Amino acid sequence: MMPLSRLRVGVVLVLTLAITTGLAGPVAQKQQPVPTFRSSSSVVIVNVSVKRGNRPVSGLGEADFTVTDNGVAQHVERVSFEQVPIDATIVIDVSGSTAAIVDDIRDDTNRILALLRPIDRARVLVIDTGVYQLLALQSISSRVSLPREPMIGGMSSVRDAILAGLITHSDPERRRLVVALTDADDTKSITEASSIYEVARRSDSVLHIVVMKAPFGAMPVAPPGDAARAWSRPQQTPEERKLLFDTAVLTGGAVHGATTDDVVTHKVNAVDTFKKVFEEFRQSYVLQYQPENVPGNGWHELAVSVKGVDAKGVRARKGYFAGGN
Prior knowledge:
This protein is α/β, with parallel strands linked by helices. It is 24% helix and 26% strand.
């Protein structure tokens, strides 16, 4: 059996083929439904972050929220403000293009782990020529830190790693957060951007991408041996990059930092960014309703608004799948 510490891209290949060949539906039907978005009783639960300026808005009730499901207004039956355990997946980029800031990324990740609560769990996935798991999912304590194993610094399997981060075992008692620290320059993934988007529509994880760039002029480290001559993808298109970032927004997350391939003149503070993301995530409202006057199966577009709060201050998932496909 392959050890947990090495989550190779063969897993990603199987999942990608399942999606692109239409096998994802039957596979998903054999598994337990994701309670956050699908259930036999047709109850839909949506996590909603509400902020006015930079501060969370408290004290809201059912009458303050408006929810539409495929354009049809729904009756919000329950609103709660819950703090539940969180499973956080941190995806870090150690590929050649980030070689000049790998130590910064490692140190930032250790500080991020220290921000989590004892009730939370975390795992760390690594973006390199392949994808592997540096830290297995585990409860957080002050003693948790990244192993000091060498970082190879090869090519970039960004989408493969994010895909692996989005696919987790569903647990209705926990919420799932994925934060990727990467320059988002993919040179190796076998996963297409469109496949990531489709997986995100079926996942109950919230994805945030923190775009971290090496200083201008920094030279990437050449990967050792045959890795330097390994197959690489065609240059990533602006459309592929945008679709990856759209995936984060779809899940109710966001992109932090530069959203284009332009040179970054300022350094993104990954720790402060994660702290804000984590605080927002754990202080979200949980809305519950039973869909009415909408088809039972397929993709449902969601829109959530809050009385007296600007639309920019309301963040929620953009939709969910009901039934099979």
